[in-house]
Amino acid sequence: MAMKIRLARGGSKKRPFYRIVAADSRMPRDGRFIEKLGTYNPLLPKDSEERVKMDMEKIQAWLDKGAQPTERVARMLEAAGVREKPARNNPNKGTPGKKAQDRAEEKAAKAAEAAEATADAE
Questions:
Q1: Could you provide one GO biological process annotation from this protein's UniProt record (predicted)?
Q2: Buried b / exposed e across 47-83, counting CB within 10 Å, b at 16+?
Q3: Domain spanning 3-80: CATH superfamily
Q4: Strands of 3-10's sheet, edge to edge?
Q5: What are the domain boundaries of the chain?
Q6: Pairing of strands 17-24, 35-40
Q7: Residue 53 forms beta bridges with which residues?
Q8: Distance CA 103, CA 114 (A)
Q9: What are phi and psi of 17, to 5 degrees?
């Protein structure tokens, strides 16, 4: 049974509130879970201690049993200092898209033409 430590959404429309739960990965997001491990309230300010509450002993026990945290929960655990931050590598993230590259090439060509025209005029 593949276990996940993930967020289960609660709260009303446009007022999210999440429970951090240990659940079988085959269960729906807001469906059946095995144990509640904490809460996350994204509406509170980032420096508030009430924003993320986690029971570290329970989370560590589930991690020792082999439960895998989701990306968002893993980042919360990194911020709490429970888990080390893995190296993230996305070399294509900073490169512009095809259309932006085409626009840059056109702009460079126009600038070169303008430079040649001013050089010829002198």
A1: translation
A2: eeeeebebeeebbeebbeeebebeeebbebbeeeeeb
A3: Ribosomal protein S16 (3.30.1320.10)
A4: 52-54, 35-40, 17-24, 3-10, 68-69
A5: 3-80
A6: antiparallel
A7: 39
A8: 16
A9: -150, 135
Q: Which position has the token pair 């289960």?
A: 8
H-helix or E-strand spanning residue 3: strand 3-10
Q: What is the pLDDT of residues 72-111, one digit of tens each?
A: 999 999 988 888 877 777 777 778 888 999 999 999 999 8
| pLDDT for the residue numbered 121 | 67
pLDDT at position 42 over 90: yes
Record the tokens describing residue 46, joined without a space: 């980032």
